[in-house]
Amino acid sequence: MKNPFGMLPLACLSIAVLFLLFAFYYPLAVLFQQASWPGVLDLVRDPYYAKVIRFTYLQAAYSTLLCAIVGIPGAFLYAEAGERYRRFLSALGLFPFALPPVLLALGVLSVWGKRGLVAPFFGEGYSGVYGWTGILMAHVIYNFPIFIRLLGVSLAQQGSLEEKTALSLGLGRWRCFWAVTFRKSWRAFLSSCLLVFVLCSSSFLIVLLLGGGPKFTSIEVAIYQAIRQDFDLATAVGLGVTQAGVLVGTLWLLGNRTDLGGEGGSFRYLESPWARRFAFTGYSALIVFFVLLPLGYLLARGFTGLATHWRSFLAPLSVSVKLALGCATLSTSLGLCAAFGMRGGYSRALGSIAASYFFLPLALSSILVLLAWRLSYPSSLGSPFLCVVIAQSVFALALNIRPLREGFARIHPEAEKVASSLGAGKWGLFFWVQAPLLRGPLFLAMVLGASFSLGEAGSVLIFADASTKNLTATLYDAMSRYRFDEAFGLGSMLLSLVVLLSLLASALEERGSQWKV
Amino acid sequence: MEGLRIRGFRVRRGSFVVEVDDLFIPKGSVGGLKGRSGSGKSTVLEAVAGFLPSQGEVWVGETRVDNLRPEKRCIGLVFQKPSLFPHLNLEDNIAFGLRVKGVGKIERRKLAEKWLERTGLSGLSKRMPREISEGQAQRVALARALIVQFPVVLLDEPFSALDEETKSSLYSLFLELVAETKVSALLVSHDPSELEFLCSKVWFQENGRVTSL
Question: If I label A365, which of A322, A376, B194, B206 is the partner at 20 to 30 A Cα–Cα?
Answer without folding.
Answer: A322
